Every structure is written in structure tokens, then in C-alpha cells.
Amino acid sequence: MPHTLNRRLVMRHALAGGLSLALPVARACQIPMGNFTIVHPWAYGAPAGGDGEVYMGFIEVVKADRLIGASSAVAERVEMAGVANPRVDFAIREGMSSGLSETGAHLKLVGLKMPLYVNGSYTIALEFEKVGLIEANLSIDMPRFR
Fold first, then answer.
1. How would residue 28 be classed by pLDDT, with cut points 50, 70 and 90?
2. For the chain, how are helix, strand and coil distributed in percent, rounded to 5?
């Protein structure tokens, strides 16, 4: 018995595959700013009274900018960590993707007023030199297994 292909089924799968290549890739928690896009501001869960660390990415940078300040109601203050100077100052370079990471520069939530619960979401205000002040949702994730 010869095996025949259903032409409609083949065409449907080919169309679906072609569309998936043509559509842009969606990333979690993107905040388009015009000059660049902030990707997934997040932190690990942390107890009240302790400190927390904030990470995020910057992609699609068409104009350079600087992160010059940050604040959150969940902490006494926000500092830069992973660098020599605790003053918040992070360059976002034109044409390059960059970010605040666990292995480099990142924001430190000093003196947490409340615990950061896993799967929770808190507000963080980010101040940029050119774009100005924006509020972002800070997602709290579980620590990875090491």
C-alpha cells in the first residue's frame, strides 16, 4: 500500500514553521524605553533586615544612556555593587547589549524593610540620565542549584 501525504497537513505545518521564523522572539518582562529595552529586572528571595541584589539586561540599545539612580520602597537605599564605587552609575553603550549580572555590576537593595518572597513582585524606580525616571516590576526568583 503506497503511503500518501495529506497536502493540506503538509502546507499547514510549512506555513506554521515559516511564521515562527518570521515573527520576533518574545522575551519575558521587556520594558521598551525608546533608546533601549530593559529585560527582566529580578532578584533572589531575601529576608527582611538583610540585603538583596537586583539584576536586569539592556538590549536593542540605539542611543547610549546611563543608569544614575534607583530606589524602592522595600529597602532603605539602593547602591551599586560589584564595582569599586557604591554610587549608582552604569553605562549603557550604544549598539551593545549589557546588563546588571550576578558576576558583575548589579544593584544592591540595602536594609530590606520586608522579605522578598519568591514569586513576588515589587516596584523599583530606575533613573536614567536621558530617559528619566521609570518604574519597573522586580520579579523575585528562586536561587539556582549550584
1. low
2. 10, 45, 45
